[in-house]
Amino acid sequence: MFHRRDLLKFLLFGTCCPTTHAEENPKWDLTVDAIVVGSGAAGLAAAATLAEGGLSVLMLEKMNSLGGNTVISGGDVAVPGSPVQLKMGIKDSPQMMAEDLIRAGKTVDKERVRFLAQNALSTWKWTQEKWGTRWNPDKLQFDEGQSVPRGLLSIPRSGFALFSSGIEYARNLNVQIRNNSLVEDIFFGPNGEAQGLLVRTRYKFPDPASGTQIKIRARRAIVLCFGGFGADEEFREMVNPSMGKLLATTNQPGATAESIRMAMRLGIKTVDLDQIQALSWISADEIGLGDAWPFIEQYSAFYGIWVNNKGKRFVNERGSQRLRSERLLEEIKNGHRIFGITTQNAIEHQPDDLQATEELKLRGIIRSFPSLEALAVNSSISYTELVRTVEKYNTCVNNAVIDEFQRNLSNTFPLNGTNWFVVEIRPKVHHCMGGIKTTLSMQVLNNKNQIIPNLYAAGEATGGIFGRSRIPCHSLIDALVGGRAAGLHILENTHSKNEND
Ligand SMILES: Cc1cc2nc3c(=O)[nH]c(=O)nc-3n(C[C@H](O)[C@H](O)[C@H](O)COP(=O)(O)OP(=O)(O)OC[C@H]3O[C@@H](n4cnc5c(N)ncnc54)[C@H](O)[C@@H]3O)c2cc1C
């Protein structure tokens, strides 16, 4: 039988059989104990753990700037049983976190999910104690899919805080870090063990001919922490056409698919590559994640409506991430534009984001109008239909009912007054749930489900942990736990090998 997976391989490589790169006695330009591919959270956790154990570690990053998606992320990490939860009297546990992830992801690797939940607290403490990352002692992020508030916030609240402390810790442990170094291939030894890498140094992304190739040997292990492929339109189009060229992304430009293609070409097992998450609450007028998403999510979704340019609502604005993304995508496929609309009431009700709203207005991302008609005319939305939509919505709000989209309208207020706000919304690709299949110790499997000796993977490069849907705040902690687990397993093997030598 010809499976979808085989078809994908055929499209990618024109063959259903894996090829492996083997070269008898390659002439190595450099030898280290361990090589880590990628400089995001997973790579930092793996490299620091290995260096703590006394190994010589080389970290390779293809881009000029380090940090991958980690450095541009929000830096929120989900930790059950954190001191902040204890202080706030919130009861949480690894079991509750695992149940949340399994419920959201449905098709997840349950053992890996439980492993993540059980190791989240100790790994987070490690970042606090060893990396020196600072965490907000008073606040927690509560996202859709979490049964309790669980997201710890770094200080300042940004992935840069996590990244900069991690890279400093790694440097202090003498991890060698090389940027502009693209890993192009893996060398395997006579027993199928990963031996080293073909690396393009002085690489200038995205020019494949830039720089020169060298061969680097890893005595102990290689850890693949090359992140996701959210910025690779062509690959997305191939694995999941509905997440293809139609959508922009929140990811850094280097989140491309050459590394996952390499893995597939080498017969490494991959799972869930078609499971790609789009965020529904992003401004169409900003690059990447942008700054308008809190306005879209807090104001227009909570205290307003989302309409298409025909003036019609099409979704429960408070529905699940997946539901909203799917409905928004349908609208876009039908050639519609989408707008979030709210009024002064919302801003007054929750004045925390007042300054941010003013700044977004100055930049023209959010626009305000004295009337619904002015808003409709200036945004090319059908006014006649929009009036009907708003009237219908207001009636439901006044009667505090659950509306036709299953949205409970008992806790919001009608749209009226002389200050109307509008922002154009467009979903963007945010996270790749699929990737390399690993064991709990993050050892990489081949297509025959066999462990490939000395080869590990962690972070967004791996698949199976989030299944169909990732809960926000849970991927950085997965990258940290996975990277550390890989490092600890390599150290364990190294020590037992040394004892046997
Ligand atoms: C805007 C944004 C906000 C986010 N906010 C959060 C949040 O608040 N909380 C949360 O949990 N998650 C968040 N996420 C998701 C999270 O940031 C990522 O899942 C996580 O950073 C992945 O870490 P990683 O180490 O696996 O990969 P990355 O951090 O992406 O690092 C991978 C690195 O590998 C490099 N690389 C790839 N291929 C090669 C190669 N062949 N050779 C050499 N180098 C290579 C890449 O250039 C990249 O630098 C966010 C994501 C985005 C885009």
TrEMBL record:
Domain named FAD-dependent oxidoreductase 2 FAD-binding is located at 33-467
Cofactors required: FAD
Q: Which keywords fit this entry according to its UniProt record?
A: FAD, Flavoprotein, Oxidoreductase, Signal
Q: Which residues form the signal peptide?
A: 1-22
Q: Which Pfam families match?
A: FAD_binding_2
One function term, GO molecular function aspect: FMN binding
Q: List where this protein forms a coiled coil.
A: none
Which InterPro entries does this one have? FAD-dep_OxRdtase_2_FAD-bd (IPR003953), FAD-oxidoreductase_2 (IPR050315), FAD/NAD-bd_sf (IPR036188), Flavocytochrome_c (IPR010960), Succ_DH/fumarate_Rdtase_cat_sf (IPR027477)
Task: Indicate the family of this protein.
Answer: Belongs to the FAD-dependent oxidoreductase 2 family. FRD/SDH subfamily.
PANTHER family (UniProt xref): FAD-DEPENDENT OXIDOREDUCTASE 2 FAD BINDING DOMAIN-CONTAINING PROTEIN, FUMARATE REDUCTASE
The entry's protein name is Flavocytochrome c
Q: Which organism is it from?
A: Parasutterella excrementihominis
